[in-house]
Amino acid sequence: MRQHSGIMETKAQRIDRDDDGIRLDRWFKRHYPALTHGRLEKLLRTGQVRLDGKRVKASDRLVEGQTLRLPPQVTQGGLEEKPRPAAQPIGGSLEPYVLYMDASVIVLNKPPGLATQGGSGLSRHVDGMLDSVMFEKKQRPRLVHRLDRDTSGVLLVARTVPAAAAFAHSLQKRDATKIYWALTRGVPKKKRGTIKAALAKEGGHGPRGRDERMAVSEADDAKFAITDYVVLGTAGEEYAWVAAKPLTGRTHQIRVHLASLGTPIVGDFKYGGTETRGKGEIADKLHLHARSIDIPNPDGGRLQVTAPLPEHMRKAWELFGFNADDTRDPFAGRKRK
């Protein structure tokens, strides 16, 4: 890094053999992991990153021998000084939560405590903040699906109307795999299984049914729900790290299904009562995270994104010695009839 008269200069970096053929955004993820995708997109839009002197897109692939011009804010090493996303958005922007973006989709790592859509008493929610991630598009992004307010993790946002329709079609025909991680109070008796239990709404207990609950039901209006699960780790008989894969998309499905086994999710007071309260260093927050998604990308191929754990869950994983960076698919190779 060179400095003349107090002015930081741009840096030219040559693409080596190991990076031949890699996408530009992947290259930055590999060499400058502290640079968020949103900040990279801004640098590309303003021409501050150039490839062989020309403007470049995040999806462009690199060739050995090419030269990248990098701006000083990337090479100075000050990226880590940026404040990390807290449980609530800063300045009403979703940009700090962007995990992945291409021409058709934005994938967010939704923080816990932020509602997906508005409702009674809610002044801040993802749907109301989508203008902050329009970037170069003229049309407003659209939500593809939802997550509970206190559930964190992968949330898809379509950038075009055709993309929104394509994602909706894939979800409807169940050509998508969503895997959640949860910390449960108690350990399921079977380490691997499938929960088949129809769900129905109980009556609302607050304004506009705000506190409505779902319950396992055999009523005629109950909706069929099915969830696969695998126990990935245990802390004695008191806690378990559970991966859950919902095959239907009912409200609070994973929460109700795991509670029906007698192992409610830690911090889920609605379905587990005071027994789910955290102890010691374990926070009194819902420990449920949308860990990953695998779904057809409207631009071709499949979109596969994994979201890091929120801070309170990462602390619990560290406390119990669980691997918070585990990227295996616990359901791989399991055939369903």
Descriptive notes:
This protein has helices at residues 24-31, 37-45, 72-75, 161-172, 253-260, 269-272, 311-320; strands at residues 3-4, 7-8, 11-14, 50-51, 54-55, 67-70, 98-101, 105-110, 142-143, 152-158, 177-185, 192-196, 199-201, 214-216, 226-235, 239-246, 288-296, 302-306. It is globular, with a radius of gyration of 22 Å. It has 3 domains: 3-81, Roll (Structural Genomics Hypothetical 15.5 Kd Protein In mrcA-pckA Intergenic Region, Chain A); 95-170, Pseudouridine synthase (2-Layer Sandwich); 177-320, 2-Layer Sandwich (Pseudouridine synthase), CATH 3.30.2350. It has 7 helices and 18 strands. The model is unreliable at 1-8 and 80-91 (pLDDT under 50). Helices cover 16% and strands 26% of the residues. It starts with a strand and ends in a 17-residue tail after the last helix. With 337 residues, the protein is an alpha+beta fold. The strands form 4 sheets. Strands 7, 8, 9, 10, 11, 12, 15, 16, 17 and 18 form a 10-stranded mixed β-sheet that branches. A 4-stranded antiparallel β-sheet has the order 3-6-4-5. A two-stranded antiparallel ribbon has the order 1-2.
Summary of the model, kept short:
With 337 residues, the chain is of the alpha+beta class. It is built from seven helices and 18 strands. The protein has helices spanning 24-31, 37-45, 72-75, 161-172, 253-260, 269-272, 311-320, and strands at residues 3-4, 7-8, 11-14, 50-51, 54-55, 67-70, 98-101, 105-110, 142-143, 152-158, 177-185, 192-196, 199-201, 214-216, 226-235, 239-246, 288-296, 302-306.
